[in-house]
Amino acid sequence: MTNYFPIHLNLDYKKAVIVGGGHVALQKVASLLPTKAQIVVISPEVTEGLQPFITAQQITWHKKAFEPSDLDDAILIIAATNDTAVNEAVQEAAQHWQLVNRADQQSESDFIMPATVRRGPLVLTVSTSGASPALARKIKAELAEQFDDVYDDYISFLQQARLMITAKFDKGAQRRAALQALLAPSLLEWTRNGEIEQREAYLQQLLMGDTL
């Protein structure tokens, strides 16, 4: 079994090509949409689920059969057709610097896409390296329940609070203490209960130098 190296890629404004237009392609598109990648789908036909993204211009659809030139300038390539020959052609056409994922042949892929839970800036990923995708989905569901939608606002608050604290205090014990104080359980509870004024008051105290 391959020992994968976990990594988060910055795909902002970089070209990602998905060859295929079926259900698997839809899953891959959904995984890429939270990034700012330039997503291009190559397929003579596409599943109905992809149409809203095409209409909204969130992805570009080239209604055609695959050609090697479709991969020009792509950083990320996903072969997601139900035709082994086409997937093989995609892999063979890719340059050595391009990362390729074959949905039908994990062992031939440069990377795999883990089960992912996103809560704003918080990204939780789960992979069993292909040993048990069902287990990965189960753990993903458990994480999604534990880290619910409240974490979106909570993490965004922590992000802004950290910027304010680092701007206020020089590096040293006081800054470290203030940043550590942001992990107080009450902040998450206030966020969950909609008690934003209490959360903001706590932050203002930290900015005044009080590490409660």
Spatial shape: elongated
Number of helices: 8
Please state the average pLDDT score: 95
Number of strands: 7
| CATH topology grouping of the largest domain | Rossmann fold
How do the strands of the widest beta sheet line up side by side? Answer: 3-2-1-4-5
Describe the main β-sheet briefly.
Answer: 5 strands, parallel
| Total number of distinct structural domains | 3
Cα-atom radius of gyration:
22 Å
Alpha carbon gap, first and last residue? 49 Å
Strand content: 15-25%
Which superfamily, in CATH terms, is the homologous superfamily of the largest domain? NAD(P)-binding Rossmann-like Domain
Q: From the helix content, strand content and strand pairing, which structural class follows? A: alpha/beta
**Which H/E pattern describes the elements?**
EHEHEEHEEEHHHHH
Q: Pick out the low-confidence regions.
A: none
What is the CATH top level name of the largest domain? Alpha Beta
Task: Describe the protein's architecture and organization.
This protein has 212 residues and is α/β, with parallel strands linked by helices. It folds into 3 domains: 1-113, NAD(P)-binding Rossmann-like Domain (Rossmann fold, 3-Layer(aba) Sandwich); 114-146, Double Stranded RNA Binding Domain (2-Layer Sandwich), CATH 3.30.160; 150-207, no CATH class. The chain has 8 helices and 7 strands. It has helices spanning 23-32, 51-55, 84-93, 133-146, 150-168, 173-181, 185-192, 196-207, and strands at residues 15-19, 38-42, 60-62, 74-79, 99-102, 115-119, 122-126. It has a 5-stranded parallel β-sheet with strand order 3-2-1-4-5, sandwiched between helices. A two-stranded antiparallel ribbon has the order 6-7. β2 (38-42), α2 (51-55) and β3 (60-62) form a beta-alpha-beta unit. The longest helix is centred in the last third of the chain and has 19 residues, at 150-168.
